[in-house]
């Protein structure tokens, strides 16, 4: 083998390895940035110590404080047990600071739950203030489920389940603007989400579609529209699972929060895999 060929092969291997490792390194980089911008440095709200805020966001923090007790009680009731650790909510006035602290590096995401905190974007205190209560409860659902899941090594539950659950228990938070009738029409046209048995740590918020919806149906904000359609379809499926077996659904949620395998638990409780039950759900929707 010639030197040039060996060099070319080595370069190709390094390129492939670079692409393979880029996502984990990017995730690690964002995590380290988030740790350096930990919300613990923000001042507490005097009237509600579980709320922290950036200077300039005090009025919004006060609104969050008013909503928080009812939201916490709602999530505990819906998800069947108290929070493992009482979550803290951080309210931001700077989009840049919020993006760094959230660990996603994306200021367009309205809220994120991580490391026992729920971080709220400035948009929820401004242009999207009508979403504040729903999104707060949505993220508290995530904080609840992952607060109990203390192992970094356990397989992550699929996003359709965690996001569908969060939309369901929050009364629609995260899927605003897409109602069930719109989701039914989308599924009838083949724009149904894909159902997997495990989630991905590197892409934990993404839900795929069997056939990608055309961008024009979402108007000016394709990302938000696509996400909210996916979340609404997931919510409908999760609600259906709870409706056909309320006790089994409660056991499934308990097993997931105890780091047990989602796939094995689902089959044990529902007698078939999640994709099989999804097919049954779609058949019912089409009728």
Structure report:
- It comes from Methylocystis heyeri.
- This protein is of the alpha/beta class and 287 residues long.
- It folds into 2 domains: 110 residues, 2-Layer Sandwich (Zincin-like), CATH 3.30.2010; 128 residues, no CATH class.
- The chain has 10 helices and 5 strands, in the order αββαβαββααααααα.
- Strands 1-2-3-5-4 form a 5-stranded mixed sheet, with helices on both faces.
- Helix 1 crosses helix 3, helix 7 crosses helix 8 and helix 8 runs antiparallel to helix 9.
- The radius of gyration is 21 Å and the shape is globular.
Strands, helices and their partners?
Blueprint: H1 3-36, E1 44-45, E2 48-53, H2 58-79, E3 88-91, H3 95-102, E4 111-114, E5 117-120, H4 132-148, H5 159-169, H6 180-188, H7 222-244, H8 246-257, H9 262-270, H10 274-286
Parallel strand pairs: 2-3, 3-5
Antiparallel strand pairs: 1-2, 4-5
Helix pairs in contact: 1-3, 2-4, 4-5, 5-7, 6-7, 7-8, 8-9
Widest beta sheet: strand line-up:
1-2-3-5-4
Q: So what's the oligomer here? A: single chain
Q: Please mark out the parts with pLDDT under 50 across 5 or more consecutive residues, or reply none.
A: none
Q: Cα distance, first to last residue? A: 63 Å
| Helicity level | 55-70%
Mean pLDDT, to the nearest integer, reads 88
Number of discrete domains: 2
Largest sheet: 5 strands, mixed
List the secondary-structure elements in sequence, H or E. Answer: HEEHEHEEHHHHHHH
The secondary structure category is alpha/beta
Strand content range:
5-15%
Count the DSSP helices: 10
Radius of gyration, whole Å: 21 Å
Rough shape? globular
Based on DSSP secondary structure assignment, what is the total number of beta strands?
5
Protein name: Peptidase MA-like domain-containing protein
Organism: Methylocystis heyeri
